[in-house]
């Protein structure tokens, strides 16, 4: 999953090709539910993007101009979890000063 996201959004190279059998279903699943506010709306709401039970978007007013797929949210959650790992009372990953 990390390789899929890294190749899609940068990392060593940018790769939009989906030439492996597992990639297309993962792409569809990632875009099934999106979160953000691509149109700078002011109200939180839920939008069905097709037929009921199909792909949907949850508008988050504070995320103006952004749109996050489920896969991106999962990656952000993993990164947040890594930042909170402690061993013997010491944080394993230190960010910034202080």
How is this structure best described in words?
It is a single chain. The chain has 98 residues and is an alpha+beta fold. The protein has a domain at 28-91. Helix content is 31%, strand content 26%. The chain has three helices and six strands. The strands form two sheets. It has a four-stranded mixed β-sheet with strand order 2-3-1-4. The protein has a two-stranded antiparallel sheet with strand order 5-6. β2 and β3 (56-64) form a beta hairpin. It is extended and about 50 Å long. The two termini are 32 Å apart. The model has no long low-confidence stretch (mean pLDDT 81).
Determine the N-to-C terminus distance. Answer: 32 Å
Mean pLDDT score? 81
- Sheet/helix structural class: alpha+beta
Q: Into which percent range does the helicity of residues fall? A: 25-40%
Task: Flag low-confidence runs.
Answer: none
Present the secondary structure layout.
Blueprint: H1 2-9, H2 23-30, E1 33-37, E2 45-48, E3 56-64, E4 67-69, H3 70-83, E5 86-87, E6 90-91
Supply the key terms.
alpha+beta, extended, four-stranded mixed sheet, 98 residues
């Amino acid at each position: 999953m990390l390789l899929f996201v890294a190749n899609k959004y940068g990392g060593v190279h940018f790769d939009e090709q989906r030439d492996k059998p597992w990639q297309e279903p993962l792409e569809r699943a990632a875009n099934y539910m999106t979160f953000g506010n691509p149109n700078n709306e002011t109200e939180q709401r839920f939008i069905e993007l097709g037929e009921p039970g199909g792909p949907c978007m949850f508008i988050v007013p504070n995320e103006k101009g952004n749109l996050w797929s489920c896969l991106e949210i999962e990656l952000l959650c993993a990164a947040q979890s890594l930042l909170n790992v402690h061993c013997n009372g010491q944080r394993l990953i230190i960010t910034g000063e202080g």
